[in-house]
Amino acid sequence: MVLLIIAGFSFPCISQSIYLNGSNVGKIESDGDVYIGNARVGEIEEDGDVYINGSRIGEIEEDGDVYLNGRRIGKIESDGDVYLNNSRIGKVESDGDIYKNGSRIGKAKGIKKEWAAAVFFFFDFGLL
Question: What is the DSSP string of the chain?
């Protein structure tokens, strides 16, 4: 993230926690930084590029297609449905509720739906 600095004032980064089965397992900050526990494990950039430990490993395109190392592996539909290898594996609701195979397993409120869905594909939050 580019820290916004105007006339010497900086605005803090806002983070949103990821909850799974009632436990806080990590967070995604408004700048796209991803944390599991207290460890920064990656970043999701505004353009959809996904980095883990400093290496670009994939991307989420504007149309929702998800790529891992250049290979299309899934899709995030505009309604929040999440597909992996053409099979629906879950959904991210507009209120941030995260579903896997029909069961509500967590919440990621206040962040982009695509960023919340990225945890299905790229980060080890136990969703896959």
Answer: -PPPEETTEE-PPPEEEEEETTEEEEEEETTSEEEETTEEEEEE-TTSEEEETTEEEEEE-TTSEEEETTEEEEEE-TTSEEEETTEEEEEE-TTSEEEETTEEEEE-TTS-HHHHHHHHHTS-SS--
How far is Cα 128 from Cα 121, in angstroms, rounded to an integer? 7
Of how many residues is the chain composed?
128
Task: Measure the CA–CA gap between 44 and 60, rounded to whole angstroms.
Answer: 9
Question: What is the value of pTM for the model shown?
Answer: 0.73
User: pLDDT tens digit string along 46-85?
Assistant: 888 999 888 998 898 989 898 989 999 889 898 989 898 8
